[in-house]
Amino acid sequence: MDRLSSSTILPDAFQGARDDISMQLEIIWAQIKAPLIVPLLRISVVLCLIMSLMLFIERVYMGIVIVLIKLFGRKPEKRYKWEAIKDDVELGNSAYPMVLVQIPMYNEREVYQLSIGAACGLSWPSDRIIIQVLDDSTDSTIKDLVELECQRWASKGINIKYEIRDNRNGYKAGALKEGMKRSYVKQCDYVAIFDADFQPEPDFLWRTIPFLTHNPQLALVQARWKFVNSDECLMTRIQEMSLDYHFTVEQEVGSSTYAFFGFNGTAGVWRIAALNEAGGWKDRTTVEDMDLAVRASLKGWKFLYLGGVQVKNELPSTLKAYRYQQHRWSCGPANLFRKMAMEIIRNKKVSLWKKVHVIYSFFFIRKIIAHINTFVFYCIVLPATVVVPEVVVPKWGSVYIPSLITLLNAVGTPRSLHLLVFWILFENVMSLHRMKATIIGLLETNRANEWIVTEKLGDALKPKAGLKAPRKPRFRIGERLHLLELAVGAFLLYVGWYDVFFGKNHFFIFLFIQAAAFFIVGFGYVGTFVPNS
C-alpha cells in the first residue's frame, strides 16, 4: 500500500507542475495579447495588404501590356529594322561583323562538351567568329578534359581559344572581364555569352546579330531559355512555370515598353562598344549581368528581347543546387538595389518614367516586395490570425487577390495548370529562403557575395549502355535537414490543430497542406537525388 501511494504521488506532482506552467503561460499570453500582439498583427495585416495590392496592380499592368502586344502585333521586326546580312562580292567575309562567343565554365564535367560543341556549331563565316572558353575549373582532371575538347575543335579549323587564370577573383564577372582583355577581342564588334549548359541553335547569330547591326541604339539582344529537363521531376516543372512567366511576360513587357530588362547572364548578344561604355563587367554583386544591364540602360542604351529565339539549357534538378541558385538570384538584386538606387535617381540621361520603372517596378516590387510579402503574409501573418481571432483579414486580401495573382502567373505555362496547387505550396516554401537572401542583400551581410556555381547534371543520371543501374544512394538525414523550413512547418501544424479545435473558418485545410510542404522540403525530399550531391 505504501509503495502504491508513493507511485501515485509523483505523477500528481508532475501534473500539478504542468498545470501551473500552463496557467502561467495563459496569464502571460492574456496580458500581452490585447496591448501588444493584436495591434502589431493589425499593422502587419495592413502592410501585407498594401504590398499585395502593389503586386496585384503590377501583375495586371503587365497582363494588359502583353494583351496589347498580341492584339497590335508589336513584333520585334516591326519595332526595329531587321534585314539579313547579305554577301558582298567586293568586301567578301569582311562585310560580316566580327563576333566573340564567350563560354565561362567552372568544373563542368557533365556539360562542357555540349556547350563547346554547340558554340563551335554556330553558323557564321569561320574567319569572323572567335570561340573563347573561359575555364575557371579547380579540378585539374576536368581542366585537362576541357582543354582537350578545345584542341579537338581547333584541329577541325575552328577559331577557338582556351583561356585560364591563376585565381577566381570576381567569379563569373572576373572571368568575363579577363576574357575581354585579350588582344584579339579588340577586332570584335559583338560578344555572345553562353553559360556551360546552354546549347544555341546553329542559326542563333543569323537571327540576333542583324538587329544590332541595323539598329545602333541597341546594346543587347536577349534570347529565351528552353528547358531540356523540365519533365525530370516535379521541382523542375514548378521552376518551368516561374521562369516561363518571367520570359513570356516580364522580359517581353520590359522590352516593349521601356526597352529595358535584366540581362539573364547568358543566351544574349552584347554590342561591345555599349558594354565598354557602361564600365564593363563588375563583381560587386552576385548578379553581374543585371548590374551591367542597369548601367548600360542609364547610359541611354536600349535592349531587345526575342521570345522566338530559344536556347536549350538545363534547370537545377537537385534541391541543393536550386537553393544556391535562388539565394544568388534573390540576394544579388537586393544588394544591387542598395548600391544603385541613388545613382539611378541622379541620372540625367533617362526619362523620369524609366527611372520609376527601374526603381519601383523592376527592383522594389519584383525583387524585394514579392519575396518578403509571399512569406510574411501567407506563412506568418495569415496563420497568426487564427490564434488571434480579434484580427480579421478581408476576403479580398486573403483569397481573391492571391488567386488572381496565381492565375496571372500561370499564363506562361498552360500545360502545367494542373500543377498550380503544387506551384503555390512550393513557392511559399521557397519564399522563406528568398526573403532571407533578400534581407542579406539589403543589409549586405557576410553571405551577400556568396557565389556557388549551380550544379549541372547533363546526362549524369541517364543509364549508360552495358552498365548496371547504380544502387540507390544512401543519405545521412543530417545532410538534408533545413531547420528554418522545419520550424515554419511546425508553426503551421500547431496553428492548423488550433484551428481544428477552436477556429471557425476551416483554414486548417490550407495550413496542414502547407505545413506538409515545409516538412517535405525541410527534410530534403524534393528534386532529384544524386550521389554526393
TrEMBL record:
It catalyses: GDP-mannose + (glucomannan)n = GDP + (glucomannan)n+1. The keyword ATP-binding does not apply. GO terms for cellular component: Golgi membrane. Its EC number is 2.4.1.32. It is an enzyme of class 2 (transferase). SUPFAM superfamilies: Nucleotide-diphospho-sugar transferases (SSF53448). Residues 190-386 form the Glycosyltransferase 2-like domain. It holds the Pfam family Glyco_trans_2_3. It is a multi-pass membrane protein. Belongs to the glycosyltransferase 2 family. Plant cellulose synthase-like A subfamily. This is glucomannan 4-beta-mannosyltransferase. It comes from Quercus suber (Cork oak).
